[in-house]
Predict the 3D structure of the following.
Amino acid sequence: MCLAIPSKVTHIENGMATIDVDGVQRSASLMLLDDVNIGDYVIVHAGFAIQKLDEAAAAESIRLLREAAAIVDDLNAENE
């Protein structure tokens, strides 16, 4: 199973993007997508950007992931 986390493109050079997820930066190939620009959000799988998202969809996905993580943290704290 793969968890798709929207990643913001912060730099592009030679078909490779630097992407940022909550301060963690990685590289991703842009060879599978057209028209990706700095500031865009992408979904990455196995090192390749496979889908571009609009900013509103990316923000909503990130909000929901943070909410889910907080619920898991609360449950873990209750069980300690």
Summary: The radius of gyration is 14 Å.
